[in-house]
Design brief:
By secondary structure, this protein is α+β, with helices and mostly antiparallel strands. A two-stranded antiparallel ribbon has the order 1-4. It has a two-stranded antiparallel sheet with strand order 2-3. It is globular, with a radius of gyration of 13 Å. A hairpin with a 4-residue loop joins strand 2 and strand 3. The chain has two helices and four strands; from the N terminus they run αββββα.
Length: 85
Amino acid sequence: GFPEDFTGPMLKELLDCCGFRGCYDFVYVPIFLPGARSYGYGFVNCTSRAAVEAMGHLFHGKTAWTENASMSLKVQWSTNTQGLQ
């Protein structure tokens, strides 16, 4: 998962820097408000299956989110809902 200090804007910046600008239309990283901390997960809606596969290949198992993070990311396809609705 994401480290506690990881935010939606940080995820968008990461995706864009990795060449995925324009390949998604929705990014959400829920934040626990009393501490302004991430719950450790987020959602990205990709605009094509190719983008999903490329993001999954690049990010699944990634651990270097920030200097103080060691948790690995699990990329998972949503089985219930697909697409921005």
